Amino acid sequence: MAGNRATKRLDITGDCCPITFVKTKLALEEMQPGEILEVLLKDGDPLANVPRSLKDEGHRILQVQQVNSDTYLLIVERGKGE
Amino acid sequence: MKPAMTSDYKDIDFNQLKRGGFIKQQGPDLFVMRLRSIGGYLTSQDLENIARLARKYGRGEVHLTTRQGVEIPGVRLADYRELIAEIENLQLLPGACGPRIRSIVGCPGREVCPNGVVDTQAMARQVDQAFFGREVPAKFKIAIAGCPNACTKPRENDIGLQGVVYPQLVVDRCSLCGLCQFICPGGAIKIIDGRVTIDRQKCCGDGACVASCPTGAWTAGARGFVLYAGGKMGRRPRLGDRMFNLIPEDGVIPRINSVLQVFIKYRQGNERLADTIERLGSGGFRELILSLSREEVAAGGRE
């Protein structure tokens, strides 16, 4: 499971846009290309927007898991950019 | 201070005046000069020029209209000729009033907005060029939205365009990450037994799957515009009816033209398009559009 390789875990379930994406972006910037970040986030706007923005910045979503009725776990591979 | 009234101020070009944008306001000899944007964009140079005109001819203030225009209140009739000459010179665009096709409202579209699935700005320029200011039986408003969020309220306009994209799956690129089934606003996508399925009836054309898909497996199949017709606000508001589900970009202008032709032919008195459609029924109106000949649509183009 990709999750086992994760080097960092971020919980943005208490945040709303644009904090959700900004926190995720900053977390990824401190990591090396190829490292794995786990992001715990809520459905609705965060789930609709954060993965799309991550794709825009060259990161890669490996897996999405539903944790409970309104919470999801994104497994993100840090991209090569910056 | 106001510039002094010139002696020949009554020598007004009525043809110019007829094109609209110069509107009587409260108070003796006071008018509003209405300027338009196309799809809501003005350059910083436009803004500087408008600010200068508002100081010179008005009261140093502007009012932002509901149709993304800028109005300069407090202009005197004596200054009209000089003001309109300056406006032309500065390549600012006068607005419209009365029974004409009004400013084209548009959201930023896919160039700027992550939700956008079509280029609303290019479409706004096309529609403006083809139709703005045209004299029609009643005021006629057109708005363009870049996605089904419909921020520019296309259904509150006589004609509303709304961008849609219908996705196509390239199966061998799919990593089965599961994202699309969780974010699909219509709940159309389901992963069943390791296979991605889509229920086309439930697809709203948001393009969320295309935008988010990490591997580019979801691609844009068909992209275009939904056309709503017969919306209006005022005393008896009515939401526009969904007339056409998917018009490709290059089919939009002829389609708007055909709606206008049927409206002009079948309206009674000075009713709005909303009233004509209410009277004929949405289906009936649509039939009339489809029965127009190619020649009739072409003849409805800009003179």
From TrEMBL, chain A:
CDD domains noted in UniProt: SirA_YedF_YeeD
Annotated InterPro entries: TusA-like, TusA-like_sf
Start and end residues of each UPF0033 domain: 10-34
A Pfam cross-reference name: TusA
Family matches, as Gene3D superfamilies: TusA-like domain
PROSITE patterns attached to this UniProt entry: UPF0033 (PS01148)
Entry similarity comment: Belongs to the sulfur carrier protein TusA family.
PANTHER family, sorted: SSL1707 PROTEIN, SULFUR CARRIER PROTEIN YEDF-RELATED
Protein name: UPF0033 domain-containing protein
Source species: Neomoorella thermoacetica
UniProtKB/TrEMBL annotation, chain B:
Enzyme Commission identifier(s): 1.8.1.-
PROSITE patterns: 4FE4S_FER_1, 4FE4S_FER_2
InterPro entries in the record: 4Fe4S_Fe-S-bd (IPR017896), 4Fe4S_Fe_S_CS (IPR017900), NIR_SIR_4Fe-4S (IPR051329), NiRdtase/SiRdtase_haem-b_fer (IPR005117), Nit/Sulf_reduc_fer-like_dom_sf (IPR036136), NO2/SO3_Rdtase_4Fe4S_dom (IPR006067), NO2/SO3_Rdtase_4Fe4S_sf (IPR045854), NO2/SO3_Rdtase_FeS/sirohaem_BS (IPR006066)
Keyword list, A-Z: 4Fe-4S, Heme, Iron, Iron-sulfur, Metal-binding, Oxidoreductase
Coiled coil: none
Origin: domain of life: Bacteria
Ranges of residues in domain 4Fe-4S ferredoxin-type: 165-193, 194-223
One term of GO molecular function: oxidoreductase activity
Name of the molecule in the record: Anaerobic sulfite reductase subunit C
